[in-house]
Amino acid sequence: MTQTLLRGRVLTFHHRPRDASDTDAYTYLEDGALLLQEGQIVASGPYAEIRKTTSEAAEVDHRPHLLMAGFIDMHIHFPQTQVVASWGAQLLDWLNNYTFPAEADYVDAQHSRAMASRFCDLLTDHGTTTAVAFCSVHKASAEALFSESASRNMRMIAGKTMMDRNAAPAVHDTPQSSYDDSKALIAEWHDTKRLSYAITPRFAITSSLEQLEMARALVQDHPDCFVQTHLSENHAEIAETKRLYPQARDYLDIYESYGLLGPRTMLGHAIHLEDREIEALAATGSHPVFCPTSNLFLGSGLFDDGGLRARGIDSGIATDIGGGTSYSMLQTLNEGYKILQLQDQTLHALQAFDWITRANASVLGMDDRIGTLEAGTEADIVVLDAHATPAMALRMERAETLAEELFVLQMMGDDRAVVQTYVAGAPQKP
Ligand code: GUN
Ligand code: ZN
Fold first, then answer.
1. How far apart are CA 290 and CA 356, in angstroms?
2. Of 128, 176, 213, 372, which sits with the fewest C-beta atoms within 10 Å of its C-beta?
3. What's the CA angle centered on 17, arms 50 and 414, to 5 degrees?
4. Cα 353 to middle of ligand 1, angstroms
5. What's the Cα-to-Cα distance from 234 to each of 239, 300, 306, 386, rounded to whole Å?
6. 15 Cα to the center of ligand 2, angstroms
7. Residue whose C-alpha is closest to residue 203's, from 269, 274, 275
8. What sign does the CA torsion over 317, 319, 105, 206 have?
9. Which of the ligands is closest to the CA of residue 301?
């Protein structure tokens, strides 16, 4: 049995740190080791102890770098890799002018396959080992992303977008085709290898009532699938949604009345919420997803992380490429920190790194498999260097604690700080 021993400074989280003094929340080993076998972490602990348990393991010495669980991106659009940095629009114009035309190209299976390979490369280059992804409306786009992820043994949660109105005809399906294509994709990919299916009505504006009925049927037929959509991102979007659904109590009520809420439901953005919506999120155990770089880029608004936490709601955090501007979960934390600063809230570096690893995994109900470096979990690992750029190295000359080092990574880090990414134990960077 081939074994690999990774040596380095090991950091893994057990629960969300209350503050910097909450040392029970994590384990940090200055000279630690992870023993990998068949895509799993089979042992984790001090190097001297783990080394004694194995004679044949090939050793990779990553000192002085940090070993952490691979990052989890909770909301990203696979067919928007060429939409990133499209100028000058807020949500609805941005969708019509840039996004729908780019997504139309994914009708072509060859284009979808080529882009799926580039997309997965970009994720792992930035230290992301699991993503929750929207594909385009076309079945071919989901086929391509699942197939590429399977070939890399990468954990991927994805779904074909359901959208049958109020977009361009090239990106419309029908209620029946959205049901049939989702069904076929679930049968082929869900729960195979490291793949999960997410039933994906894009948002209320682009689905007819008949299509939301189909989404309800899919959720009833497949309660173990995830659900992903968008919620209350932008004022014009909310006004248009209320115009289209005059009978709804509020935006969330639309999804609620079609049975789409629950602990496996991820709602991108969730910025401008009414009190009843917050109560319903808490009551159903549904999860908002904070998308900081996107919310700033599209001028959408400020996510109230502290307010939602106080109501017992667990949110994910994500890039939202291509409304988001960086694939890096480090840059996502950077902008997230600033959004919370504007609301007199804080995001401590220990909480930040817990969020993009263990806490995102917990939102998915997958923290027994990903998001930590515990023995028995999957060997998705990122190797980080807080000295990656001259500016970071200079700043690090005055960093004395682990928390300071993490904060440098959080504010200044990007793909250059990612020395290596392991997916199911296999190194992805040359
Ligand atoms: N709402 C509906 N579709 C989208 C999308 O592709 N990106 C963002 N940011 N919001 C959306
Ligand atoms: Zn989105």
1. 11
2. 176
3. 75
4. 26
5. 9, 5, 20, 35
6. 27
7. 269
8. positive
9. 1
Show Cβ contacts of residue 70 under 8 Å, excluding neighbours closer than 6 positions: 127, 128, 129, 130, 357, 370, 380, 381, 382, 421, 422, 423
Q: Which residues are registered as beta bridge partners of 173?
A: none
Q: Which residues line ligand 1 (CB under 6 A)?
A: 77, 91, 95, 99, 202-203, 230, 233, 294, 320, 323
Task: Output the CA 416–ligand 1 centroid distance in Å.
Answer: 28
Output the DSSP codes for 155-205.
EEEEEPEE--SSS-GGG---HHHHHHHHHHHHHHHTTSTTEEEEEEE--GG
Task: Supply the pLDDT for residue 77.
Answer: 98
The secondary element (H helix, E strand) that includes residue 305 is: helix 305-310
Average pLDDT over residues 423-429: 98
The tokens describing 225, both together, are 């699938």
pLDDT of 19: 87
Q: Which ligand is nearest to the CA of 293?
A: 1
Q: Which atom of ligand 1 is nearest to the CA of 134?
A: 6
381 alpha-carbon distance from chain centroid? 15
- For residue 86 the two structure tokens come to 């499209």
Q: How far apart are CA 251 and CA 231, in angstroms?
A: 7
The DSSP result for 391-421, as a single string, is HHHHHHTT--SHHHHHHHHHHH-SGGGEEEE
For ligand 1, the distance from its centroid to the CA atom of residue 332, given in whole angstroms, is 17
Classify strands 195-201 and 155-159 as parallel, antiparallel or unpaired.
parallel
Distance CA 399, CA 141 (A): 45
Nearest CA to ligand 1 atom 8: 323
Q: Calculate how far, in angstroms, residue 168's C-alpha sits from the geometric centre of ligand 1.
A: 14
Q: Are strands 58-69 and 26-37 parallel, antiparallel or unpaired?
A: unpaired
The predicted-structure confidence for 179-236, as pLDDT tens digits, reads as follows 999 999 999 999 999 999 999 999 999 999 999 999 999 999 999 999 999 999 999 9
Return mean pLDDT, the chain.
98
For tokens 């959205």, what's the residue? 178
Q: CB-side exposure of 356: number of CA atoms within 13 Å? A: 33
pTM over 0.70: yes
- From 91, 103, 237, give the residue whose CB has the most ligand 1 atoms within 8 Å, as the site to mutate: 91
Give the 3-state secondary structure of residue 117.
helix
